[in-house]
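Usage

Read records sequentially. Each one opens with the input sequence:
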Amino acid sequence: MITEYISRTLNKKGYGNRHMKKILEHLVSFPIDAESDNFIAALASTLVISKGYTEETPYWCVSNSRYCIHCSPCGDNLLERHQTSIYHCLLTASTLAFGFDYPWDDTVNPHTLPGFSNGWRWDDSFVNTLARFAGFSYLRFNGTSAREEVLSTMKSSLDNGFPTLLRLENEMEWVLAVGYDSDTIYGLDSKLHTLSDSWYSMLRDAIVITGSTASDMSCKELLERVVAALSYDEHEALESMIMDALDHVTIENAMDTAGMMCAINSVPIEARWHAAEAFCGAENLLCDICVNKEIHSRLKDVFAARYTMDGNDETHGIGWKIWGALGVGPRTGYSITQQSAALMLQKETQETLKRLFAKMFENDRAVCAEIQACLEQL
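and closes with the structure output:
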């Protein structure tokens, strides 16, 4: 474990308990795999710690419908698997799993989710919703807060076993404060490291986790939030815009059109997969509040069929077909090339993309309709 390595190193250098005040255990660096939202990834790693997950906590494998027995190459680190499971649920409960862009992306206006204005930066209502869903309490500070107040509050929470989420110089990325030695703060993102001594001068946002609580969100409220996201009128507007753009491809705009199609596709291919994993799980944060077995079974079936089930024109598979039609994939870093522009000029490509995007929107409407039917039972 990364924490044990740090502790052994400090002890060898003679620091021992004289200087080391606190480094939390059960750390999970982030992002892991397909985690494009840095805040949700940071919060997922936070909840691994604050909810008391360990390597001994059983992990439910969705693919095999059983607890993990380390049968595949997905890794022996169960903490990483738990972090990913939490990410699935947080992205779903936040409704970020159901848009075609992320609200922190200022190149998109209007956003394709309700409640997110241009220039949005993790507002209080957003964080409060996730706190109610996942069950945690917190205090929030910004760059105008007194340094000693922020530092002492962080240290107090660390002493109680809770990390702090910090947004510093890079306003789009978050790091966890997971330990301290006097006034030196240990940060965690893709690795464990010490923060610059001037971290406070770069502080934009601090969310200090103060405790773990019971969830305060009902299944009905959660599903109503998902319906509002999937039925948002900007989805229909986006579908019309896509079809119109594909009807008016020219030599001059072919590269821009290809880039637009690739960018739109990049969110649902990943985000809907996260949502399906959340609803198809048998033990996770979402299952803790969606306890009606009949409702949960219906939701599991529709999310799997429409978003992830292989060979079923599901959204995840459609996303790969869209990338394929644009000549995009791992070898291009999932970015367009000059070949993409050439393909975009072909009538066959335009018609293929129309059909594939239409199916993607149809899948969303089918999921939304089934959730609405479930809500009538609730």
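Summary fields computed downstream for this record:
- Residues 4-18 have pLDDT under 50 and may be disordered.
- The longest helix spans residues 347-377.
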